[in-house]
Each structure stands twice: as structure tokens, then as C-alpha cells.
Amino acid sequence: MYAIGEEETVADAEHVNIWTLPERPARGPRPAYSRAQITEAAIRIADAEGLEAATMRRIAAEIGAGAMSLYRYVPSRDDLIELMADRLTGEIDLTGVPSGDWRADLTRYADGLRAMWRRHPWMAAMRRSLPGLGPNQLLLIERLMGVLDPLVPIDENLALTALLNGYVEGAVREEIGAAEELRRSGLSEQEWMARGQAYVDRLVKSGDHPILTKIVMEARRPHLSRDEQFRLGVRRVLDCVAAALPPGA
Amino acid sequence: MYAIGEEETVADAEHVNIWTLPERPARGPRPAYSRAQITEAAIRIADAEGLEAATMRRIAAEIGAGAMSLYRYVPSRDDLIELMADRLTGEIDLTGVPSGDWRADLTRYADGLRAMWRRHPWMAAMRRSLPGLGPNQLLLIERLMGVLDPLVPIDENLALTALLNGYVEGAVREEIGAAEELRRSGLSEQEWMARGQAYVDRLVKSGDHPILTKIVMEARRPHLSRDEQFRLGVRRVLDCVAAALPPGA
DNA sequence: GCCAATTGCGTACATCGTACTCGGTGGCCT
DNA sequence: AGGCCACCGAGTACGATGTACGCAATTGGC
């Protein structure tokens, strides 16, 4: 395509996909760092200060490297984020799935996904259009969709799995929403309250928004524990799934 | 809090929320542009080239203004995005909802939301943690949740609505996913195919990913029309909703 | 008609991702 | 054993971004 210089970066014409790009070439001095180490550092920063704080320079500083050194391991920041996503997917433990009990399996998956997203809230906000195809993500696909695979055709399986995913995503977003928004804004809790709350209070007092008023009131009431509420929602989704299964499954 | 200069930007201490920030002050020369005009231009650019292309300078150029002029109308780019989101929410036509027929109403909402996201694919990717509270968004909340409000308690209503939203989001993401990913990458279709496809083909040929193989095969088969498929999914979700309603509703 | 508020906007800065380039290192071939 | 060169870490630099600041021009209210 175009002439290459005396050296080229880690990505060449055929190896654009991270997952096909070997981490370690054959010859030369031993690398001082590793993809795993960089990914780990980036996740640590993102957990603490949000994904936008995980800049290349910051990540490099975290592991004691120069900024540009990272590019010896990762073609771009987007690719690094791909690595982070796969690494986090690996935190969802699905060993032994499918087990034969599809309700138990899907419940386990929902719990695991929720727990992972609560540990790494920035991840719940960072939804790509297509699922990644890293090793952990591939394993997840095989195990998760293997649960319903013997019971329904693949297109049904896709739809039902998407439904479950959608529910978990919505539920987690509701759980972590306020906290994330607060962190993102960089405001103190008092400031944030003063601003958002004052506006919402005004809306409620206006009387033009009866439903919003109900929602606000509801939010101030004591609730079932988050876990209970989530389990309840998952059970409902699974009932919906059961209805789509052939009878007697 | 802190001393202000001889002039201040559009945002002051009490007016941080966009929705409480008046667009037009009393005195001074007539503004040459407007929030609506700026929002419109930004949406036009985002539709054509993605949200990341809608930079302040680019938007300003689109309406023939200087870059910094926009800040006379909008406190920050994030706030402008908030305006865009509300403006797009207004495209979901729910006049006459709730009508008394909850299935029809929710189906109409699902169709409208899907159509809106397909017209503005960047919006489907840009999910904030909390829903916005602009005028169109408030109206949507009242109408949409007003549908089930007479039938179920508010917490149930929230859960069921989230379920429907989750389904639509997943379905739309699947529809527009490939196209968006392609655009985001900036590659030509051939390049993108060559790269993604080659990797997927390798995975399929390896034989270690039976489910992925099924998915890929399925994607190559002719389908029900997208619309049919979507309607089917919505109906399933609504059946799930019906199960949660009190008998005879 | 004057004053002050408010306009559009040019300049400037910090920060980002990353291209280019260098001097050094050490595995491989001879 | 010796030399070559692939590969390393990292500094410098560039273009782009969001936006703070300041200035000259404009206009409504007195």
C-alpha cells in the first residue's frame, strides 16, 4: 500500500485485530512490561478514577514506563480498552456452565455480570456496538449460549440472551447511575445534590409531572435490598424465557 | 465561592443544570444564533459522521459562527449533547399515549424508539447512566410510564419499562452494530471484511467454537425482515409484562 | 444619548492520542 | 567469537480537542 520506514509500529497490514497480533516477537531484547501488566494498570486507574482518567501517559506512569513505551505492546488506546473489556469478562466465572439446569446457569451469569459491572462501573457505560471477540469473551459466548443451545434454535437463543443482558444492564445502570454521574461531574456531593435536587424538587412542586413525582417519592422510600430486587427481576426475565422454550424443558 | 472577573460565562453558580439555564437574557445585542439551531447542526453532523465528529469548532463552522461563539449559548459540550439527546427524544411521537390499550401503546413506543435510534445510530451508543430531564424527556416519562401506572405500583412499572428499553436497545444495537463499527473504524468495507472476517473464519475453522459457528452461519442465512423480527421480540417482552400485571388488565 | 450588559470571536493553553526517531541491547547466524 | 540487526524504552513533536480570557462592537433601558 504505502512504503514503510526502516521500522514499523506493532501493527502491520495483516495484523490489525488485537487478537491476531502476537504479543511477543521472536528476536530482540526482553520486553520490560507486558500486555497483561498494562491492562491491569489501566483497569486499576479506570476503577479508581473513571475510564477517561486512564490516559496513555497515566497508565505508563502507573507501571513506571515512558508514555510511548506502551505502543510497543498495544497498537492504540482503543485496542487497549478492548483488552480491558476482555480481561473483565474473564471475571465472570462460568466454570461448569452449561450444567443442565438452565435457570441456575442463567441466574449465575446474571449475578456474575452484575457483580463485575459493580466492581468496574466505567465498564457499564462503555458499551460497544458489537461484542468483543477476545479469548474470555469467546469462552463466555460458548458457555452462556451453550445453556439454551440444546433447547432453542440459535436465533431464539440470541434474542433471549439479549433480553437477559438488557435487563441486567438496565438494572446495574440504575444502581450505579447516581454515583457515576456524581463522579463524572467532579462535583462534591453537596453541590451535586443542590443542583440536581433543586431542579427535580421544582419539577415535583410544579405538579405537572405526577409520574416523576411518584418515582422520586419511591426513591426515598426504604427498599428491598438491592440484591433481592435484582434477583426478583432476573426471575421475571427467566419466566419470560421459559415461556419461549419448548414445553417440558 | 470565588471572585468573578469583570465578565462571566453563561453558567453561574446557581444555574448549572442546562434545563434551568435561560437561553436569552434581557439586554444586549440580539443573538445571531440559538440553542435550537446549534443543537440541530450538531445532530446533523453526528448523523453523518458520528458523535466524535461533532466538535465545537465543526459545529460552529456548520452554522457559520466562530468556535467560541457557541459558549454564549451552551455551557459545555456535554451540555450540548444533553440538548441533542432531548431533542432526539422529541422525535418519538407519543401523542395520545396513554390511550387505554397498554399493548398498543408500548408497541408504539418500542417502534418509535427503534426508528429514532436507527436514524441516529450514534445515540444508541451514547448511553448515560441516568436519564436526562429535558422537556421532551420529561414528557416521555410521563406518557410512557403513564401507560402502566394505573395497573402496577411504580417500582414494578420502572422494572417493566426498563425491561422493554433493554430489549429495544439490544435489538437496535444488533441491527446497527456492524455498520457503526465499520464507520467508527474508518476502514473501507473491503478492509474491514478482510480483517474481521478473516479472524472469525479462523475461529470457525478451528472447531473450538461451535456456538460462534452457529451464530455466524445464522447471520449468513436469509432472515425474516428486520421489522418482523423486532415485532416478534417486542411481543414476547409484552407477554412477559402481561404476566406481571394483575389478572384481567 | 449614554451606560452597562451582552454579543461574536480571536488568541492561548492544557491535555489528549500517537508518529517519528534515537541510542542501546541481546539473540541469532556465521 | 563476533557482528548484524530486530527489537527495546523513551524523548520530542504534531495536530486536534475543549474551553478560559479578553476585546471591540452592538443595543436596550434610562
Question: What does this entry look like structurally?
Answer:
Two copies of one chain form a homodimer. By secondary structure, chain A is mainly alpha-helical. Chain A folds into two domains: 58 residues, Arc Repressor Mutant, subunit A (Orthogonal Bundle); 154 residues, Orthogonal Bundle (Tetracycline Repressor, domain 2). Chain A has ten helices and no strands. In chain A, α4 runs parallel beside α7 and α7 packs antiparallel against α10. At the A-B interface, α6, α7, α8, α9 and α10 of A face α6, α7, α8, α9 and α10 of B. The structure holds a DNA duplex (30 and 30 nucleotides).
**Whole-Å distance between the termini of chain A?**
55 Å
The CATH topology of the largest domain in chain A: Tetracycline Repressor, domain 2
Question: What is the second-level CATH architecture of the largest domain in chain A?
Answer: Orthogonal Bundle
Tell me the number of helical segments of chain A per DSSP (H or I, 4 or more residues long).
10
Largest sheet of chain A: none
Please indicate the percent range of residues of chain A in DSSP E strands (runs of 2 or more): under 5%
Approximate shape of chain A: flat
Strand tally of chain A: 0
What is the H/E string of chain A? HHHHHHHHHH
* Rg of chain A (CA only): 22 Å
Class by alpha and beta content of chain A: mainly alpha
* Relevant CATH superfamily of the largest domain in chain A: Tetracycline Repressor, domain 2
What's the overall average pLDDT of chain A, rounded?
A: 87
**What number of structural domains do the residues of chain A give?**
2
Largest interface summary: A-B, 60 and 60 residues
What is the helix fraction of residues of chain A, given as a range?
55-70%
**CATH class group of the largest domain in chain A:** Mainly Alpha
Low-confidence stretches of chain A: 1-13
